[in-house]
Write a structure and sequence with these properties.
By secondary structure, the protein is of the alpha+beta class. Helix content is about 25%, strand content about 25%. It has 6 helices and 15 strands. Strand 8 and strand 9 form a beta hairpin. The longest helix has about 35 residues. About 40% of the residues are buried.
Length: about 350
């Protein structure tokens, strides 16, 4: 405590106290006003084991007063969580999770396979993942934990993101690399991607040199609108999850074909079938089969499970782009093309029976 002359303690006068109070109030108000500017870097330095980037967080957080969420990084917990909440602490604007998974029910991938899904935004070949229902999902094998163990990293941004972005993908990769080391996964660190490639619609002729060139060689019916078919070919044949989409340029309806590689896909696809198709008692959910809105083929690739999905669910007009029989023919062509490209064996294609939707 400072002292005045002759050793007496100095106490502020009433006028001085009032001035100090005003200054403190002004500084506090200025701090709150500036908080949206500095808070991403503050959270990056203090949350998620230091694996975040302030610049990327600035793109994922809304410009409002926020607060740190629960953080289990560095705690010894086997489920690592961190994030940022709204100012009232009741809802999150960014939620990050990383955990090891063995495919058990209610695992981290369950919500991603509730319905047949369009994988229009798979990631580059260097990142084994896809843009899920709520944000990026990365799935990596964990060689140090034994066969069947994988690391699942998920980033949910309810702040400003409503589609794939470079910021959320790079955030997911940073977290996957940090969580992999903390959990003893043993997966090789992933390179930070430079960007998320935009989805480009190609004519059938221009798609001929892509991984989806099989569509340019297929005998396609006329589109429902009578307009030209277009192709979206966002991946190459090295990607952990591959994708091709056939789009009616008049209506925007599409049929989406995707290939999913790795033993981790077996349980999610069985749940996908059992949740969406009414199957007879003598038919298991591990079969290649055709539902009203989707089809599934399967194979063994590099000694592991591979699943091939056709999603024909109408989203814009209420009318599917192709008939079920036409979808079956194209799914068979897609799965056969993928199996040849990746030297797969034991290819199983769906038969002509169409199983009804589960009510």
């Amino acid at each position: 405590m400072a002292t005045g002359i002759r050793g007496r303690r100095w106490l502020p006068s009433g006028r001085t106290s009032a001035i100090v109070a005003v200054v403190v109030a002004v500084l506090a108000g200025g701090g709150w006003a500036a908080k949206p500017v500095w808070q991403p870097w503050w959270y990056a330095a203090r949350l998620c084991g230091g694996h975040l980037s302030g610049g990327e967080l600035a793109d994922l957080l809304p410009d409002e007063r926020l607060r740190a969420g629960r953080d289990t990084f560095g705690s010894g917990n086997r489920v690592l969580r961190c994030g940022v909440d709204e100012g009232d602490g009741r809802h999150f604007v960014l939620r990050i999770e990383a955990q090891t998974d063995t495919g058990a029910r209610l695992g981290p991938l369950d919500m991603e396979f509730g319905i047949p899904r369009d994988v229009g935004h798979p990631f580059p070949a260097s990142v084994p993942g896809f843009y899920g229902n709520f944000g990026p999902v990365i799935v990596q094998d964990c060689p140090k934990l034994g066969r069947g163990h994988r690391l699942v990293t998920q980033v949910y941004s309810h702040g400003v993101e409503d589609g794939p972005s470079t910021a959320s993908l790079r955030t997911a990769v940073r977290i996957a690399n940090g969580a992999g080391a903390e959990l003893g996964c043993g997966a090789k660190p992933l390179p930070l991607p430079d960007r998320v490639e935009p989805v480009r619609k190609l004519s059938l002729s221009r798609a001929g040199n892509t991984m989806c060139g099989w569509l340019s060689r297929a005998a396609l019916p006329d589109s429902p609108s009578g307009r030209a078919w277009q192709v979206v070919a966002p991946t190459d044949d090295r990607a952990a999850i591959t994708s091709c989409s056939l789009i009616d340029s008049g209506t925007g309806e599409s049929v989406d074909f995707s290939g999913w590689y790795g033993d981790w896909t077996a349980e999610p696809f069985e749940r996908l079938l059992s949740n969406n198709a009414r199957l007879p008692d003598d038919l298991g959910a591990d079969e290649a089969l055709l539902g009203e809105d989707f089809g599934r083929a399967k194979a063994r690739c590099a000694g592991e499970s591979a699943n091939f999905l056709a999603n024909n669910y109408p989203t814009k007009t209420g009318r599917a782009a192709l008939s079920t029989g036409e979808v079956r023919g194209l799914l068979n062509a897609f799965a056969t093309d993928q199996a040849e490209r990746r030297d797969c064996t034991e290819l199983e294609l769906p038969g002509p029976t169409v199983y009804p939707r589960r009510g």
